[in-house]
Amino acid sequence: MRSLSCVVALGVAGVSQPAQASPVAQESPASRTSYSYGSFSYTQVTSTRYATALSSPLAFATPFAPAFSEASTLLPSNVTYTTYALLPSQTITPDGQYGQSAYAALWANLSYTSAPPFTTTVTPTPVPSSELVYPPTLYNRIDYADLKLPSDFIWGVAASAWQIEGGLQLEGRGPSALDTIGAIQSNDSSSDANIADLSYFLYKEDIARLAAIGVPYLSFSISWPRIVPFGVAGSPINTEGLQHYDDVINTCLEYGITPIVTLNHVDMPLSQLSDFSTLSENFLYYAKQVMTRYADRVPYWVTFNEPNIGVGTSFSSWNDLTHVLTAHAAVYHWYKEELQGTGQITVKFANNLAVPLDPSNSTHVDAALRYQDFILGIMGNPLFLGEQYPSEALNTPNLNLTALTPDQISTIHGTVDFWAFDPYVAQFASPAPAGISACAANQSDRAWPECVATTMIQADGWLMGDMSNAYAAIAPQYVRQQLGYIWDTFNPSGILVAEFGFNPFADSQRDSDAQRYDLERTLYYQDFLEEILKAIHEDGVNVIGTLAWSYLDNNEFGSYANQYGMQSVNRTDGSWSRRYKRSLFDYVDFFHEHSA
């Protein structure tokens, strides 16, 4: 029951007195709201507008390297060029170390529940105008229209070979380190990468769709085992693989799209896993075959994708990162010095910035910096600064990380033309429960060797942002710190956000129209990009581009439920048709709005 104190006032000696009314300001006639009735009619609250396709074809004024007719002289003269067909029933015959039966033996322990429903390249169909209608305009955006991006800003989308191609055992491809995911032996046929998005045969359709909606850059990876099935230097080169990626690049240019090519996106040949001391020789052998043929038409190259988080998955030892660095440097030096390429080369890092859980607590700051030393400093120090591995890593007992020699540092330093990384989100860091020193001395501690506890929950108990189905979050408040840390710590010439994206919670369980209207993904991109604008204009950070992950819902290393795609893929009706989501329209629109 409400108190009556609002209508009763106390007079002297505690006697109740009627409350005195306050004077009421007189409203002038001019300030009164005027109400009126009329004849109701509906008004149009939406307007139909269409995406603008790219101008095509795309031609570069000057090639980025000599044409293959000239560059072919840089290749070994004793290379065998051939193709393979997988015949699982083939028995071992004396057809040589690299014969057809040897190729069949590569696949002896790998088979799949499903096979691709078609095995030839699909001719693209024009995108109907009805698919190119923009979604309803968002009204809750802050207007930063006055902030413009540099005229040469790189923006587009990304994907990787293993996650979208399918056709793992077709046209001479050899097995990769990822192919056990979804193989029958793993009892995981639901994530069968032998199908994936069938982009190995639908790449023309995919490229045509990106051009129709106006995406100017496409970052994709080449499958190393499609080019070198046996994976080792001196072994045969698969001509069907070379022809395929040559046509992918030509199709990009035909539709007006600039290609960005990654040489290895995790799926290195299965044979490489047994001995990383041979990585530099094998990787350079493969890279030469690719670059001599395509480098005249490719302005940007990435050697390795996210090797800095590969220890314990792709790599068994921290010293394997040294082999990655020397392999990367070997390709860089060959491209620049022998091929005389003028394009730009980098290596791509993973990083979700560690932010001290309590910035006023020095141990939390130490934990955040230690985390960054492990995840970025080990490779970033020699590449960008010409410095030794971080002392925090080298001084961790039993880490099995050998300090670089001066000659190694000299060879590695400067073999990157810009910084590229995948900063999906940030996270909070504090010391491991045992403390950093005790943890570092105890190899059996679950937090070893970083010895840092990370969380997405703030010290006050709140989540840092709207969470996705996996680890990403809508937390734009940390974007500028991500970029600022890289800019001020490693002093790169420029920063490319080479992957960023959001997979809404339980997205795969929603109906198709709800998946299409992917508002959370749009908010993630819009907020992230607005913070990039501020980083450029207010912080003086040279951000040179962004590539959204991913342009298709794909195989996220064993899961089709983690849907990062800006297009859906119909895997249920046999059509494998793609469908734009609103996030792709809004992503494209952002760059139209902020172009210089």
Automatic annotation (TrEMBL):
It comes from the Eukaryota. One of its GO terms (biological process) is carbohydrate metabolic process. Residues 1-21 form the signal peptide. Keywords: Signal. It holds the Pfam family Glyco_hydro_1. One of its GO terms (molecular function) is beta-glucosidase activity. InterPro entries: GH, Glyco_hydro_1. Belongs to the glycosyl hydrolase 1 family. This is Beta-glucosidase.
